[in-house]
Amino acid sequence: MSIPSSSPLAVETPVAATRAKNIIAVASGKGGVGKTFFAITLTHALTMRGRRTLLFDGDLGLANVDVQLGLMPNRDLGGVIAGRLTLTQAKTPFAPGGFDVIAGRSGTGSLAALAPSRLALLGSDLAELARSYDDVIMDLGAGVDRMVRQLASHAGRRLVVITSEPTSLTDAYAFIKVTMGDDPKADLRVVVNMAKSTTEGERTYATLLKACENFLRFSPPLAGVVRRDRKVVEVIRTQTPLLARFPSTEAAEDIRAIAARLSSPSG
Q1: Is the model's pLDDT at 45 over the cut of 90?
Q2: What's the pLDDT score for residue 106?
Q3: Most confident region among 1-15, 96-110, 145-159, 188-202 by mean pLDDT
Q4: Is residue 107 part of a domain?
Q5: Domain of 155?
Q6: What percent of the chain has pLDDT over 90?
Q7: With 0-12 CB in 10 A as exposed, 13-18 as middle and 19+ as buried, what is 98?
Q8: CATH code of the domain in which 73 resides
């Protein structure tokens, strides 16, 4: 397939960020690639490795981490934005997974329209809170708009989740392109989700890699391939963690492998 490379993207430049090495942003060019499911399961996998972990729902305005986990938090990011809570006070323990969650608030226009300076302050506060954890997983909104890129700029590593669909590849390429324009030294890695097999996932990655090398002179490494698994649909429907209910499935095995690499000394 052909990935467009030369047309300019009408995007604003994010405000300079305070970055934390242990924040891992999970992004995608488009929705529907399983990004939130992957962020949740990666958080759980890191926790199972004995790491103190926080899951931050950074999909401002379309948050659904709490829905997928079956949580009904009394505190969320809306209270932080309104000035009623600190980020620390907005945390909700997710006992079945052993990690903390800062939930968003779906459909809240005030979150989706944050001023750049307020968004920068939120990211800086998250970077400060990250000092209390081994890992902070930030589930970003889809796309390449200012909010997504501003929040992503606070992360030490950024995982771009893709599938084999052409629209996923073109939109992921757009995300990588604008990210490299903002921050040429960004640590960007690719996760192929819902692959028919590891081999097919590697072919999907190779397509994106070729476009990045040819047009951006950049080679984002492959963080891992997650195979398609029918059990994923079931755990999302029942709002239960994959690693708790079906720990031996292929998708669970693949995400645990990604977590192991990310938490290694060289990860």
Answers
A1: yes
A2: 63
A3: 188-202
A4: yes
A5: 20-262
A6: 73
A7: middle
A8: 3.40.50.300
